[in-house]
Design a protein that fits this description.
alpha/beta; Rossmann fold; 2 domains; eight-stranded mixed β-sheet; six-stranded parallel β-sheet; 15 helices; 18% strand
């Protein structure tokens, strides 16, 4: 650690350490270490099936990762089990922090919304760590109600009140888009002393090696004579892939239009599988490692993203980064006012259409796949866009700015 390096604690619910696995949390931690800071991670493992004692790991770059499993309440009815797990898991991670981490030794603590998932830890951090940063990818519980993940009514109002109370524990709140900074100020109570900053999501900024498309398509049994439009990610609520299925069906079930390839698993995967069985313009592949997925992208022509109607805040779909690494132009169906559309156009890496309009989405896909020169230009522009927008170094700079270590303009 350099003389100016900081001690940074990250508290998160996803931190994969398996071979070939990565996530935005691991990428940020590694980038902070590369910048000369010391990082420890407190990982509330939501999906840990072992349910054993807390486990400690030190990575090859010296990051200490302390994991504890989110508690299960199998004796409760299913409708109450998930709520109890969500509301009470934070107590387990807080107890672990008290026992195994010297909180007062840290300069910066980083957490992610929903803060309620780790409560009461934010209040403990407020007493022990001078700079406390909250990253917001989805606004809780607003976004989750809007996409149908949680009910409205009393449950929503209680969750909203608790989350609002915890926001005051953080010295800075970091959003992914300028429009979301505006949403935060409009919909939540923010103290004048709290800083609001913006940094896009981040990921590996190095382009993937160019591949032999003919050989790849032959190896993976993909058609040689059709353009391929790909969507990769979790097939769950809030991903907007229903619009893509509707766009794929507009071409009938012929053999000459684009093949819409969906890669991933999730609660709604059966919807894609059923569509693929009756329409040969649609194909479904199960989830695979990020490395294998990156190879498959080399056989494709355009990357697809979509947001869902009825959501008032904005997002940058993380799958965009994988598409750009593979040099694929992006076709996005997004809500009006989402800064993501401007980002795609400004950097020449894609086009956006209004969400909820399958015909416009299909027309945009057709336009891109029929224009080889546009695809070539997007491939050239993708590397520059990755460096200018999505390199983790920008998130590192924002963390330091939020902690007052470097200057940054207000969001």
């Amino acid at each position: 650690m350099t003389a100016s390096g900081k001690r940074i604690l990250m508290v998160c619910m996803q931190y994969p350490l398996g071979p070939g696995q990565s996530y935005l949390t691991t990428e940020l931690a590694e980038a902070l270490v590369a910048d000369g800071h010391r990082v420890e991670v407190l990982h509330l493992d939501w999906d840990d099936a072992a349910r054993g004692e807390p486990r400690e790991t030190v990575t090859g770059t010296g990051i200490r990762v302390l994991r504890c499993a989110a508690p299960e309440f199998r004796w409760l009815p299913l409708t109450l089990r998930h709520a109890a797990k969500f509301l009470l898991s934070g107590r387990a991670v807080t107890r672990l922090a008290r026992r195994r981490i010297d909180l007062a030794s840290f300069d910066i603590a980083i957490a992610w919304m929903p803060a309620l998932a780790i409560a009461p830890l934010p209040r403990l951090l407020r007493r022990t760590v001078p700079h406390r940063l909250l990253f917001v990818w989805d606004f809780f519980p607003d976004h989750h109600r809007e996409i149908g993940r949680i009910p409205g009514g009393l449950a929503f109002r209680v969750a909203r009140g608790l989350e609002q109370g915890l926001l005051g524990c953080f010295t800075a709140i970091i959003c992914t888009l300028p429009g979301n900074a505006s949403y935060l100020r409009r919909e939540y109570r923010i103290d004048p002393a709290q800083r609001v900053l913006v940094t896009p999501i981040w990921g590996p900024a190095t382009p993937l090696p160019c591949s032999d498309r003919v050989a790849l398509r032959s190896h993976y049994d993909l058609p040689q004579d059709r353009p391929i439009a790909v969507f990769g990610g979790q097939l769950v609520e809030g991903r907007g892939f229903e619009q893509m299925l509707a766009a794929a069906r507009l071409g009938g079930d012929g053999d000459h239009g684009p093949l819409f390839l969906f890669v991933g698993d999730g609660r709604l995967a059966s919807m894609v599988g059923d569509a693929a069985r009756i329409n040969n313009c649609i194909r479904h592949l199960p989830a695979m490692s990020r490395a294998d997925y990156g190879v498959r992208l080399g056989a494709c022509d355009v990357g697809l993203v979509a947001t869902v109607p009825g959501v008032r805040s904005f997002s940058i779909p993380s799958k965009t980064i994988d598409y750009l690494r593979a040099g694929l132009p992006v076709v996005a169906a997004i809500e009006p006012g989402n800064d993501f559309g401007t980002l795609l156009q400004t950097h020449g890496v894609g086009i956006s259409v209004p969400q909820g309009d399958p015909q416009a989405f299909r027309a945009a896909v057709n336009l891109v796949v029929k224009d080889p020169s546009a695809r070539a230009q997007a491939r050239t522009a993708a590397a520059a866009c990755l460096a200018a927008v999505f390199d983790p170094c920008h998130a590192v700079a924002t963390v330091l700015a939020a902690a007052g270590s470097v200057a940054a303009p207000p969001a």
